[in-house]
Every structure is written in structure tokens, then in C-alpha cells.
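target protein:
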Amino acid sequence: MNKDMMKRAKELVSQMTLEEKMSQMLHHSPAIERLGIPAYCWWSEALHGVARAGDATVFPQAIGLGATFDEELVEKIADVTSTEGRAKFNEFSKHEDRDIYKGLTFWAPNVNIFRDPRWGRGHETYGEDPYLTGQLGMAFVRGLQGEDLDNPKAAACAKHFAVHSGPEADRHHFDAKVSKQDLYDTYLYAFKRLVKDAKVEAVMGAYNRVNGEPACGSKTLLKNILRRDWGFEGHVVSDCWAIKDFHENHKVTGCEVESAAMAVNNGCDLNCGCVYEKMIYAYKAGLVKEETIDAAVERLMEIRLRLGTLPEHKSKYDDIPYEVLECKEHIDLAVEAARRSMVLLKNDGILPLKKGEYKTVGVIGPNSNSRIALVGNYEGISSEYITPLEGIKAYLGDETRVFHADGTHLWKDRMHGLGEARDGFAEAMTVAEHSDVVIMCLGLDATIEGEEGDAGNEFGSGDKKSLKLPGLQQELLEKITAIGKPVVLLVLAGSALDLSWADENVNAIVQCFYPGARGGKAIAELLYGEFSPSAKLPITFYRSDDDLPDFKDYSMEGRTYRYFKGSPLYPFGYGKSYSKISYSDASIDRTEGTAEDTFTVDFTVKNDGEYLQHEAVQLYVKDVEASTRVANWTLRKIANVELKPGEERHISFVLTKRDFAIIDEKGRCIVEPGSFKIALGGQQPDERSRELTGESCHFFDININGETVEAEY
């Protein structure tokens, strides 16, 4: 918050009538012409590129960006996104187009924790780990807002605050019951990092209740934690029409007037929706004071001034030209991000394929030529889409014959309404029989994996019913594999699926997530060895539905790599490559100290292979003697290093009090004396990762002496 801008905001608000003030608290704020305030719509989207506002560079979906483990890359993507957003805003404003999705207040990133793979909106997040989510979320905020917060390029928004991750069908009346330990250990961590460290401008509340309080009107979340404890100075916006749920679904208020009062009194400044149209009645009934209204509108006017959306204050970004939209530099970054986002899960040696080795290639599956499967949700429009089929055909040219068949609908049992079940199987099997190698393209897309009310299909509310491939995809995969040709499986999906059968029966598996508009180009290049895959899983791939707790249970017990007690199919932090990375000379500067001391871990990472390689270095910590429940391991440091063949890099991690802290049952962040383990490597320190990679982490044992001390959460 800028003091000069806040002073001017207070002056503007003091000149408004009460009704004018209230009008500015709706997401579609009307103009106040006598004060020189143009209309402004607060609702804009930029999850992985400018969304819903016409053509823009479409980057991989957020979950794919999570798989990069690369803060610098995510910051670059957000920087490009806000540059394109500015270019659009500049031109839209010239044409007096101030409609929805045309502003500079972008409702991204989504830093909810992907606690359950069935949640349909999980692909909007950076995965299941609080630390990784916080690091990448901060990078996104920095890129979107820019370094000069007095003159931000755009405003970012951390959503959905808080304890929000499904089920989608119940979100408007669901009460997420969570312990203080899980609240602070898992659900709030990334939000605090974005608020305290990245200075995110806005926070959006969630639809659900949290321990009985609706999130968008929660005194606990908004007043006590966000503003009092964390010192948040920006504005709070409701999720869209969430305040209406207070009286219609949560039944915590009796009408719109009471709902409006509850939300604004507890710190919700801006209503995405229409309930605040009734704010005048709340005021007349004595439920809301004018100074509460003033404080909210002042915060809103202050950021509008800093952004330069009012004529009296120009922005240094006003001259960003329209020509930056989908320029070569931005497109190249999107393709590079796609390359960096795909995880090689299995490879028996078939990959990389060699151009010309196979005279005929079969590309089969409902996601083989699907544009929807490239982009996920909250997406922009691209001037060009490259599907896996198109990418492979363009890469191979005329020298190799490429056959194609969808084979089956994504989730129905037939491709055509008048056809019989399995009406595409014969063609798919024919393609496989006439091919030397088969590329299967299966998975999901945002029509069946997404937001309640947004998916708009017969399949479900947006959540997955199970981890199994939907429809007849598994049956098709088994029939094609039985033909006996080499099979490479590409999974385009934003969440974990049950790939147990595929793991045992196909030659290679690549988790492509939703790789962006031109993702097919990157897919072809990965298959044919133009680069080495480097991404790591930001989520756990379980073996079956039997591994999952009740979807509605918000306890972290048995969830994610941190608390799951079984053996996953593919662990968090895992991913193969075409190169070989070694870790050596690992040391720690001390093995004993107090909680106030720092511990420095030094090591060398080297590329022993023949490919340029990006390595996602991971450091985990475990409190061995904790007095309360703690995670199996907790990710505490990441570094992404680019290594040429034969190149080595020396890296240091400095561990502080916070890295050894745990959250107890009271929600306190404390460091207890006792034994700790540190694990360092390119993967998680679990048995399954060792089994899959043949590699082990470097381990250190340390002791922390003294008394239990509190750490800053």
C-alpha cells in the first residue's frame, strides 16, 4: 500500500455519496463521472496466460508449471502474462471496453493444496505440497505484479482462502472441518508466504465454510488471521456469488441484507456477485457502519490508483504495445515451458525414438488430436494449436507415415450417438496393426475435470469419480497393447490417474498434464529426443482408489506424500530423464546446534549424461523425535539448475529455524530439541523413489539442543 495513493484514495472516497461508495464494492463497478472515475470490472483471469479476453499466449496449465519445480521459469511466465494483460488493457481502454475480463486485477494464482486427486480443480494449483506451492505462488505473484509495487504492472490475487479443495458438487453448502494443526501446517502456509513475502495485492475467499464460518465472511480467517496476524493491507474479494450462499445454502444468515453485512464487517471489501447491491439496506438497518464501507472502498481506490486505471494517475506501462501479444519471444517461452512441464514416468529404453527408425507410427486415443486437452481451464485463445498428432506429423514430415484414430470417446462408450458401443475400436486396432510403434494419447480434459457449473456436461460436477481412466479408455489401451506393437502412453490430464496396468504393460509413459496451446510440438520433441525431460511430479500417483481417504474428510491423515503410509505408484518429486545426474561432495557444516543456529548443506550436482538437463534439486527434513504428528518428510528447499553435458555446479542450502519447525495441535509453530534427518537429492527420500530410479538421497543426522522455541510461521 502506498501512503500517497491511500491519501488520495481517502480524498476520492470522501467526495462520494454513500450509494456511490457501495457501487464500487461490486465486481462490475460503474463509473462516477463527476469524479472522473471510469467504470471498471475487477474480474479478470490469468491462471496460465491472459484468459477469457481474446487471443493471448497460452502456457501450460498451473499443475504443469508445478512440475517444473522452477521459480524463475514461473516468474517469467507471469511477467509475460502481465505484459500481455497490459497490452490488452491499454487497447481496450482506448475503445472504452471495460467489460468483464478486460481489467488488470487478475484472480490468480490458485494456491489451494491439491490434497485429493479426485478434486476437479486441482490442475489449477501447483500440487499437493505447501512449500512448493508457496515458492511457485510467490514467483507468480512477483512476475505478475512486477518489482515496483508503487506502480504494479498488474494485481495478483491469492485464492481460494482457505481450506478449499472439493468436493465441487457440495462447495456451496460444505463445511470443511479442519484441525488447527492441519490448518496452519498445510492449508494456510502458501497463503501466508504470498501475503507476507510476495506482497500479493488481493486475496479471494472460498465458497465453503471453514469450521462453521463461511470463508468469505469468516472473522477467524479474514479479520484475525489475514489482517491482524499477517498484517495484510490489500483488498479481499469474494468468490463469485459466494456471499449469496450465506443465506441460501450455509444458512448462517437469514437474507441478502444480513449476508452483505456479515461479509463486509468481517473484511470482505469486494463482492463478485450482486449481494452488495443490498448493502444500503444493511446500513439503514444499522448492521453496517459507514466507516466500514469507507475502509473497504479506500482499499479498492488505492490499488486502482496505483494500477493507473484512473485518468489522474498514469502508469509507466501505458505504452506497452499490442504487438507483444503472442510475439515470438512469448511463444518460445510457452513451448519451453511445455518441454519443462512433462514428467517421464516410465521408460524401458524405447525413448527417445529415433527419426526414421519406425516407418509407420500410429497415434491413437481421444486426446491425440484434441485442442481442449492442451489447455486446461481458465485459458485464453491461441492463434495456433498444435495437438500431439499435429506435433508428431510436423516433426516427422513426409518420410514417415503417421496413421491416426481417436478410438473412443473421452468418457462415453461410443463416439457417435447413433453408433454402437466401441464404434471406434476397429479403426484404432487397424491403425495399431499397420504401425511399427503406437503412441497412445489418453487421459482427461477440462470438460470433465474442472469447476462445478463450469464443466457443463453429463459426466459429473467436475470432480473425478475415481482414479480410473474414464469411459472405455482402459479397455482400448489393453486391446491395442495386446496387438504386440511397442506402445508409448501419453497422459494428458491435470491430476493423478490409476496407471498401474499401464506401468506393467506399456513401454513408456509420459505425464503431459495440459501442456498449453502448442504443447504438441513439445511432445513430439520429447518423444524424439530433441531434449531430455526434467519435470518432477508435484502430486502423488496412487495405485488405486483404495488408497484414498473419504473425499470430504479434510484431515491430512493418509493424504499426499507427507502423510500417506502406503507405497505409491509414482511418488511426489519423481521423474525420469534421458540424462544421468549425480550428487557428490555432500556435507553439512554442523551436526549439532540450537534452534537459533543455521545449518548449511553443500553439495555438487553433475550432468554425467549426453543431454542438456534441468535438474530439480530437493531437500527434505524430518523431525525424528517430535511430540506430535509430523509428516513422513517435508520439502524445505528446491533449486532448479541447468547443466550441460559434463557440467557440474556447487550448491548451498542454508537451513534456519523455520526449516526445522513443526506445527503442534494448537497450531503453534515450534522447534523442539532432538534428532532430525535431512535428505538431499533429485527425488523424495522414500523407498518407492529408490526402487524406480535406482538412486538414493544423501542423508544427514543432526541434533538440536536447548529448549522448545517458537518460530515465525
Observations:
- The radius of gyration is 26 Å.
- The CA atoms of residues 12 and 35 lie 8 Å apart.
- The chain has 21 helices and 25 strands.
